[in-house]
């Protein structure tokens, strides 16, 4: 039962979240042979000032935040 948890600053529309969830579910189905009926995608929306990245309190909109970085994922077989 794949569970995907997405934490981000608030401000995305329901349509944006649905589109993201659809793409993630399709990737799980394609790459992990996941059964669509068991895929769970959870969104956590954080308000400004409730997120710390490194030493920086995030108190601006996502577009203004330079301190939040994507973490590279290494795949080893």
From TrEMBL:
Residues 2-59 form the 4-oxalocrotonate tautomerase-like domain. Keywords: Isomerase. InterPro entries: 4-OT-like_dom, Tautomerase/MIF_sf. It holds the Pfam family Tautomerase. SUPFAM superfamilies: Tautomerase/MIF. Belongs to the 4-oxalocrotonate tautomerase family. This is 4-oxalocrotonate tautomerase family protein. It comes from Albidovulum litorale.
